[in-house]
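Reproducibility note. Readers wishing to regenerate the assembly model reported in the main text can use the exact inputs given here. Chain order matters: entities are listed in the order in which they were concatenated for prediction.
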Amino acid sequence: MATIAQIGRGLPARRPLGAAAAGGLALAGFLAALLAINQTSSAGTFAGLAVFAASGVAFLALTYQRRPYLTFVAPALAFYTLFLMFPAVEAFRFSLFNWSGLGEPTDYIGFANYRQIVGNREFLNALWNNVQLFLAVFVIQNLVGLPLALALDAKLRFHQFYRAALFMPVIISLVATGYIWQIVLGPNIGILNPLLAQLGHPDWQRDWLADRFLTFKLVWLVQAWQHMGGPIVIYLAGLQAIPTDLRDAARVDGASPWQLFRSVTFPLLAPAFTIVTATTFIAMFRAFDIPFVLGGPGGTPDGTTDVLSLVIYREVFGLGGVIGSVYRQGYAVAAGVTMFVALLLAVIVPVAVLRRREVGL
Amino acid sequence: MSLRVATRPVAGGASARTARLGRVAVRGLLHLFLILSVAVALLPVLLTVQASFKSLYDFYDQPLGFPTVWEWRNYVRVWEEARIPEYARNSVIVTGVSVPVILALSCLAAYGLTRYRFAAARYIYLYFLAGLLVPVQLTVLPTLFQLKTLGLVNSHAGLIVSYVALGLPFSVFLMAGFLRTLPREIAEAAHLDGAGEFRAFWDVMLPLNLPAMATVAILNGVGIWNEFFLALILAPDVPTLQVGVNNLRGYYSTEWGLIFAGVTLAALPVLVAYWLLTKQFIRGLAAGALKG
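Running the prediction on these inputs yields the following structure tokens for the assembly.
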């Protein structure tokens, strides 16, 4: 950075030809590197990246005086394009092939993978489970999370501790979450089963993680347990943004607590409600960790805990989590692309609707 | 405050006392509600820590109670036998390099996009935002091939570049949002005072940008420390703590005390940082909740 600035300052302000040449060379080097990655040629990739780096620095130095923003933006842009957007585009290309994941995809089949997804029972079952998961967490966080935010907003003694404790599940990792719920729900070392026995209800004991009816309900609850911290804090921030005089005025006018909530607080909370609902929607349709931890990659028992990201995981890695066996990678990636596009559409529309019923201050 | 009992103007001592009593009752109920919820949030975590001190015998004999003997040796054994120091080293390297790189790249980019007016700024910003919607399950396979070509599979560097790329979109989004709230005149004034473009950024805007940088650092730091999926697939031979602790199940099939000692050790740095910097963590991670 500083070096580019120094070089740039020493050069004449306008060098349009040199800049164009260096820029063109940099772009060519970058594209060559992408092409070489695509052809799994290591030498080509490194050569392309070297050309890109050298001519890129020259280009930025030549344009620094007139367009300093290029130097600021370019490093992140190049990195992001190379290591995130390019793989995403590659993923889309893979989805057009009948491909097991070994070697280069050669069997081009167009959109056949996508046609196979529509109407596939496994896919639809997982999709329906995602819908249920979203609805359940949505209900729980508005029936429990919103009241918790209201209670925290009352500024009782210890409210800082309450808030910190309620938020804590958010920082627990996937691996720890898995072990934690195994110890609570597990049939061998469990906490819940011995507790039920001690409470005098040994007949209530279950194999909680292998119950066709109950296991997915537990996925809802555990998902809500881990997800709730975000919504509580966002609702709390929304509540604190409501000017106190509005609520005081309603109170002076004799509004009951319920009327106050229904007619003043809740409408003004609409922006927070929109954010919480939209983020929950995205999170629950991308959910992977909790279903994986409680039901395993197969969505056991009997696919009752299966979700979309697990379907993709199975197609890529199989049940054993080993890469390179004969799996339908092309199909898996097509499922991923479908999920991505569906999410995109599904998020834009509801947010537009919810935004409209928000009350401006 | 909306749950507080409405305080209508009241006359007479009796009804005032009733109102006060009602307020105390409501406050008590709120405390009860909060305490119960806190118990649900914390209990599973506390049970894990408690389990990490249990001997194998206690696990089956005392599933609910405290350990009869506090087995500190669980920690000593898991530390010595299970290569925990090696996993910890990998986690520290990967997180410790990724976060500063994310900070540097996203800071520069956000500054360039918000400080200068140029036609492409809007499109570049939207291009960064598009990365927020790309699911990891989608890109993991092409990324694996790409890292193979670059010779970066099973290396710290391979994990680092993947984490940096994944962390950039949201970090740029957060920092650009923050920098936009600062008056543009500040940097322009510094520029007029003779500071070069880079000096204006480094000496004037960077210190003002510190709150956003703290948020970005915490969000990415916790996310990368806890990340499991990519670490498992892109670098299984350079196991981070999460991968290593996950593998404990294979080493100690039923020695749950040792496994939970490992789980506790892996979570400890994040937990300690959380209790030290609770406010910053909640602010940072709640911002991350927007990412979904």
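We highlight two features of this model. Chain B has 14 helices and no strands. Chain B touches chain A through 103 residues (CB under 8 Å).
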